[in-house]
Amino acid sequence: MSELQNFRLMARYNQWMNDTLTEAAGTLPETVLLQDQGAFFGSIMGTLNHLLVGDIIWLQRFSTHPSGFHSLHPLETMKKPATLNTMLYDDLEAFAVERQGLDIIIQEWCEELTDADLEHNLHYSNMAGVQSCKRFGFLVQHLFNHQTHHRGQITTLLSQQDVEVGITDLLTLIPEAH
Length: 178
Description:
single chain; 178 residues; mainly alpha; two-stranded antiparallel ribbon; 2 strands; 57% helix; 6% strand; globular
């Protein structure tokens, strides 16, 4: 599997897991979703929001790539979150609409990516203004790894509330070899 094929698989996995976790979170009352459970971003909603914030920030950075990805144009007009713990949504339904839209953008963007795009060195600034320049393919890998890391935390938070999430393994989406 090429790096590009892997990212396309990860985009599908991302959408599937975000839908799964949002649906599972929907079984809980709003007070529980917003309750601080001692996670990095406090609550289930805090962690869901952090994932959305991280994706927006990274995709906005990615939109500066010289390839000018058409699929990322909607992010250019989105307001950049001020902090990594910005609560964009405290309502799960409104969150779900934004999450689903962003996941579609991520899938379309991965279809638009080329091998040559991944070799580009992208200059960007982190939230503290520190300048970096890194290979684009590694930054894309970071985007997907970051999502997986925090979705694992959300799965734990849901489990602590006796919510069964079901199968979460990437293995489920990997096609059988013939």
